[in-house]
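Thread: Bark agglutinin I polypeptide B-like, structure

OP (GT): Posting the sequence first so everyone is looking at the same thing. Length is 228 residues per the record. Can we get the C-alpha cells written out before standup tomorrow? I want them in the notebook alongside the other entries.
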Amino acid sequence: MASFQYNFYDKKVKDLIYQFDTHYPKQDPVLRLTKTDENSKALPWSTGRILYSKNVPFGPAVDFKTTVKFTVKPNGNAFPIADGLAFFIVPEDHPFPEGKNPPPGGNLGLFEQAGKSSNVFAVAFDTYLGIPNYVSLGIDIEHRKPEANVNVPYSFVGKELTLVVSYNGATRAISASVTYGSETFPVSLSYNLATILPSGVRVGLASTTAQNVAVHDVHYWDFTSTAP
C-alpha cells in the first residue's frame, strides 16, 4: 500500500512536503522542524511540518506502523520547554488551521486554537506540561486533549528517542511507545480510525514553539501500511 524510509543524516530528502519553518541546519545533520538561530538555539513562535507527498490509501482493514527517531532539547537549562513533536494522519485535502499560517503553540500546527479539528489523528510527545519531572506521550483523536496518555520522565528531554506508532484495522488497536535505551513507555487505545479518516490520507510530522521553546530535530522516519 505505502512504504518509505528516510534517514535525515542525508539532507534534502525527496518525496516530502516541507512547510513553514522546517529546514536542514547547516551545522547539524538532522531535519529541524522549528526555527533556530545560527548557534542552534531555539526561537519562539515557530511552526514546522513535513508531509509525505504521496497519497496513502486508508480504510477499515488497513494496518500501519511508523518509527520516528527524534530529539527535543531545551536551550540550556530552560524550563518549561515547548511544545513537542507529533506524528499525524489527515485527509489528503485537509484544511490545516489558519490556512497557510497556523498559529504556533500547544496545538502543534494541527488543531484549531480551541484545540479541536475534525479528521485528525495524532500521537504527540508533549513537553509543555509545566510539571518538573514529566513529559507526556498521548493519542489525540480530533482534539488536542489526548484520549489516552502516559507520563514519561523529564530525563528523556534532550535524548535521541524512538517513537513507534502502530494500528491494527481488524482489532482497532492503536499502540504507541517512546523509548530511550532500555526504558520504554507505552500507551494504547481501541478506536476505529476509519470513522474519522477517508480512503485517501496524508501522513506527517509536526512541531511548534510559542513563548517557551525547544529544538525539534528528526533523525529518521519510516512508515509502512498494508491491507489484507
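GT: Both are above now. Quick notes for whoever picks this up: The chain has one domain: 2-226. The radius of gyration is 16 Å.
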